[in-house]
């Protein structure tokens, strides 16, 4: 079968032929229909992600596929079940083995492409906003990188939770995507001063930041008293240093959030969150946005779309 693998951090990942995997105890073998890409895949390819495996390994953190074989002691899911799973790696391939306990049945109302890009992006925003930041109805949510994979879901979930959403993105096309997801106010980071624009709108009660760098600093300066700033990631490549004096004077809380980390210490939180999100999708409250679907042979091009910020929402690869 084919797999898009990292063999060293000094060379580019490539599609190669590898042996078909066999499910071990507690695992299932999936015929992979779609794999959702994440910014973490770019970091993992360079060896800079916090959970990077030792090469060689297959990229692709989340997938949708059909169970075609099960390992010893696996009762569910059954062979023939269509599931979504966050496995951390192994998704950019024709087939893959994943822990059975992490597989979630996919409703008939959800396409393969949607399911493959649903868990990380929506799960991140929902758990970050509901559990960590305790976003309240009527508060103002500032979303940086609002047209990206997780940022766009933060706009949508923030609106579903009753917040007023300010979306920050680069250029009119990306801002149009954020507006379609429910953003109340739009700020163009290419031309507008983020701090000035947000303060003119009354300031931010919660900041959702997958960008870091100068955008973080500007957002911090536009925070209201007792604001909560959620650190999601550093797509800008710049990890900001936080001035503690500003936190003190304005009673601001900065919150770290790593969705995948809950697999190790509180997987039930992920399960409960995803169950609620699946219900919201079935009720029509969520409209996932996939900007690009590419075949496995173009997996490198798919990653490049994210690296150069030419995508909006999710990029999905279909073996």
Architecture overview:
The chain is an alpha/beta fold and 319 residues long. It is built from eleven helices and 16 strands. The strands form three sheets. Strands 3, 5, 6, 7, 8, 15 and 16 form a seven-stranded mixed beta sheet that branches. It has a six-stranded parallel beta sheet with strand order 11-10-9-12-13-14, sandwiched between helices. Strands 2-1-4 form a three-stranded antiparallel beta sheet, with no helix packed on it. Helix 8 links the parallel strand 13 and strand 14. Helix 3 packs across helix 4 and helix 3 packs across helix 10.
Write out key terms for the chains shown:
11 helices; 319 residues; seven-stranded mixed β-sheet; six-stranded parallel β-sheet; 16 strands; alpha/beta
Helix and strand run: EEEHEEEEEHHEHEHEHEHEHEHHEHE
| Share of residues in helices | 25-40%
Beta-strand share of residues:
25-35%
* Rg over alpha carbons: 19 Å
Distance between the termini: 10 Å
How confident overall, as mean pLDDT?
96
Helix and strand content put the structural class at alpha/beta
- Sketch the major β-sheet: 7 strands, mixed
Please count the helical segments: 11
| DSSP E strands, number | 16
Low-confidence stretches: none
Shape: globular
């Amino acid at each position: 079968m084919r797999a898009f693998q990292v063999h060293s951090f000094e060379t580019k990942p490539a599609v190669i032929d590898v042996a078909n995997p066999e499910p071990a105890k507690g695992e299932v073998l999936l015929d992979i229909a779609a794999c959702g890409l994440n910014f973490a895949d770019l970091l993992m390819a360079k060896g800079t992600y916090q959970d990077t495996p030792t090469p060689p390994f297959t990229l692709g953190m989340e997938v949708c596929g059909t169970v075609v074989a099960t390992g010893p002691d696996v009762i569910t899911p059954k062979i023939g079940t269509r599931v979504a799973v966050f496995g951390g790696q192994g998704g950019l391939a024709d087939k893959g083995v994943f822990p059975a306990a992490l597989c979630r049945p996919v409703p008939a109302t959800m396409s393969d492409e949607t399911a493959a890009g649903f868990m990380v992006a929506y799960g991140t925003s929902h758990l970050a906003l509901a559990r960590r930041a305790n976003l309240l109805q009527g508060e103002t949510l500032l979303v940086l990188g609002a047209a990206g994979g997780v940022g766009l879901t933060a706009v949508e979930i923030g609106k579903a939770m009753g917040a007023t959403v300010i979306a920050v993105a680069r250029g009119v096309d990306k801002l149009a995507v954020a507006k379609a997801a429910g953003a109340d106010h739009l700020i163009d980071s290419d031309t507008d001063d983020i701090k000035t624009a947000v303060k003119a709108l009354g300031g931010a009660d919660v900041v959702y930041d997958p960008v870091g760098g100068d955008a973080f600093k500007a957002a911090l300066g536009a925070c209201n008293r007792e604001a909560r700033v959620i650190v999601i990631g550093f797509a800008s490549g710049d990890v900001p240093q936080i001035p503690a004096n500003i936190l003190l004077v304005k009673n601001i809380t900065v919150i770290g959030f790593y969705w995948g980390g809950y697999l190790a210490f509180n997987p039930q939180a992920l399960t409960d969150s995803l169950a609620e999100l699946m219900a919201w999708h079935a009720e029509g409250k969520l409209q996932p946005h996939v900007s690009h679907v590419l075949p496995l042979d173009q997996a490198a091009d798919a990653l490049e779309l994210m690296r150069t910020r030419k995508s909006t929402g999710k990029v999905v690869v279909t073996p």
